[in-house]
Amino acid sequence: MLPGDSADLRKARGAFFTPEKVARFVTDWAVRSSADAVIEPSCGEAVFLHQISREHKGRIVGVEIHPASAREAERTLNRDGIRASVHTGDFFAHTEFGRFDAAVGNPPYVRYQGWTGEARKASLAAALGAGVNLTNLASSWAAFTVHSALHLRDGGRLGLVLPAELLTVNYAAPVRQFLMDHFGDVTLVLFEERVFPGIEVEAVLLLADGFDAEGHNGTDHMSLIQVGGAGDLTDLASARRWTPPARGARWSAGLMSSHGFAAYSSALGLDGIDVLEAWGDTTLGMVTGNNKFFTMGPGKVAALGLTDTDVVPLSPPGSRHLRSLTLTSIGLERLASQGEATYLFRPDGEPSRAAWRYIKSGEDLDVHTAYKCRVRSTWWRVPYLRPADLFLTYMNADTPRLATNRAKAHHLNSVHGVYLNAGVRELGRSLLPLASLNSVTLLGAEVVGRAYGGGMLKIEPREADRLPMPSSELVNAHRDTLRSLRPAVAASLRAGRLLDAVSLVDGVLLTGALGLSGRDLAAIRLDRANLASRRAVRGRGGSRGEG
Questions:
Q1: pLDDT score of 131
Q2: Is residue 407 in a domain?
Q3: CA 178 to CA 172: how far, in whole Å?
Q4: Do 140 and 278 fall into the same domain?
Q5: What pTM was computed for the model?
């Protein structure tokens, strides 16, 4: 460690210095000719440039904002006979674009809370200049990745050590899109062990080849390679190909084991597995603008003297009551008796006198000034959605659940509504919530959903569309057996034994009907458990859920 520097100071500027084995592997991959021009952005003490041969004749450049590190990098490179120049300054002020054959390094990792002020402005502006619009939640590495690529000639290579956030977080979607738009080949090397001992940052290696500044020759897939640790980089396993549903979509499949990935991919290709979108449309719920005013229990309805035309039945805000297979009228009444809000104030036509009095009380309380109320032509009339066939839980500690809406209740935006296609409506209402409790769907939820604050799994309607589901043909062919399972599945869910319920459904649909082997099923279950555990651990660690 340099005099006057410290571990805390290094952490503050995002400097996690790379193990030599990793730097050597990345540099050997990226530098393919002794004439290659090479740049290491945010080079620190130039561990990557130190891996270049003394006989290298091409231009070698490092950029480092920390003066003492820059001086030490240049001194030791010259000492080792590597002809390099190290520029002291902010990499985002470095504009020698399109002059290098390879960019290698380990960009600084500073979370959005610490990446502030002029440094953030410069980084976001640099990314935006490449057409990449990063949000304020983006950590420092995201803009560094884009700006590093801009320094490449067409055909150039980008070899970086990045946090595994690249694969999953929402703010990285524009970076994922940029990489697939501008490189003909994208390879990720994933580690089972920590690359940086003692540091809770999971790392991946990004190896992007064939840069195209115009973005005309990108790729729709990537190659994934999994190794144990840095010492295994000399003996790489064969790559597996992954095609995400969209170029900016999450690359969560990269976190799966080789066996789990193969088993899951194979299952998705079976005739009996489809997606939720094939069953119907998933939509956001109604937005009130002020749930406290618009939602109420039957006692408040009676006390206000509201009529049946002033209110509609409501699945109460939240989703705890939707962890079973069905919401029935009796179940809704039970929730009402427990003090839950089972009605939505939404007069149909002309409000009653009592409703007008309640509207006036809302105006006295300035409810009508809330944004969602203010932008409506009639502030107290919540936009109408007919009762959905199924409810889909939105925020989940375990996995998204479907529940049949037998109560014909309306829903707010704390859950999603699924409106089934006419041809499968009765079958879906009867059996899809049960059939969805299978291991392929559970793993699919971890792949298409996103980790959120507290380790919750969040799923938006567009993501729900891609959620793997048993096909209507498969469910229909086994409807009698599935119906016979309902009592046992419902009992397991009431007891909080989700995986017991899933095991029952797996036996009918996955291993029974589709012939999935016990070994493949075990791999799918293990990968689902590992992804869910990783999500929960991140949540306990206080990571804000962007992902």
A1: 87
A2: no
A3: 10
A4: no
A5: 0.78
